[in-house]
Design goal:
It comes from Nitrosospira multiformis (strain ATCC 25196 / NCIMB 11849 / C 71). The chain is α+β, with helices and mostly antiparallel strands. It has helices at 35-39, 55-69, 86-90, 117-128, and strands spanning 44-50, 75-80, 98-103, 106-112. Residues 1-25 have low confidence and may be disordered.
């Protein structure tokens, strides 16, 4: 009997779900909101487009969490993006993660593949002014 061993990147037995609730944050469960729903949001909001398997997205998660922990309350929506997903296309998302900072449904700032929590924090402060 021949035994073959494949050296594949080890995936966690129970991967982190892309959807779920974080403290004080909204996330999408299974289906994405429509563009009209996003455009009608009131107050400050952060919409993150990415994919659960994306290495850049996983690397950005602690940076986003760090920035959000020091920010005023912000509606935070994580959206699983990919082929055939219209919402990401409607925002012109080309790379993941893309963070879109909204105030009353209007885009105020955008960060693509953020590497610095300070940049995220500044964008959050900008959308939270006078909120």
């Amino acid at each position: 009997m021949i035994s073959l061993r494949l050296h594949l990147r080890r995936m966690p037995e129970k991967p982190e779900p892309w959807s779920g609730y974080n403290i004080g944050m909204d996330t999408v469960h299974g289906s994405e909101p429509s563009r009209a729903e996003i455009d009608s949001l009131q107050g400050p909001a952060l919409v993150e487009f990415g994919a659960a398997w994306c290495g850049y997205c996983r690397a950005a998660r602690p940076l986003i969490a760090s920035a959000l922990s020091g920010a005023p309350p912000v509606r935070y929506i994580r959206i699983e993006d990919g082929k055939g997903r219209r919402l990401g296309r409607s925002f012109g998302v080309k790379l993941w993660p893309t963070l879109i900072f909204l105030k009353d449904g209007k885009e105020i700032a955008r960060l693509v593949r953020p590497e610095n929590p300070g940049l995220i924090q500044r964008a959050l402060e900008n959308i939270c002014k006078d909120a």
